[in-house]
Write a structure and sequence with these properties.
By secondary structure, this protein is α+β, with helices and mostly antiparallel strands. It is built from three helices and two strands; from the N terminus they run ααββα.
Amino acid sequence: DRRRMRILERDGGLCCEHRRQGVAVVAKHVDHIIPKSQGGTDDDGNLQSLCAACHRAKTAREGRSRGAG
């Protein structure tokens, strides 16, 4: 998918979450920063590259927060 490849390239192929911690980890997933279920869009500004572990953790956190409402 072109969008996915564009975002991975924009982020240098690295996980944004790990980069914030000063660690370089290869990203394979593109994630909605604000989930579409919470009003997020497919705009490039709402997309970030994540490694598999960070993507799983973020998805789990989002699932818990949906369940709490």
